[in-house]
Amino acid sequence: MEILGLLVLLLDIYAIYNVLVSGSSLPAKALWSLGIIVLPVIGFIVWLVAGPRGSGRAVA
User: Is this model's pTM higher than 0.70 or not?
Assistant: First the structure.
């Protein structure tokens, strides 16, 4: 289980880093980062699908 937790932590750090270096506005960066921190697994998956490299369409 520790390996799974470490994997989630590393993926979240990767996602937050990509959010912070993206060209998005500061409020968007803050919201993405907060979502990834508060909901680590779900936040990462949502970022992976709808984030900067996602399809570009809004998710309802």
Answer: yes
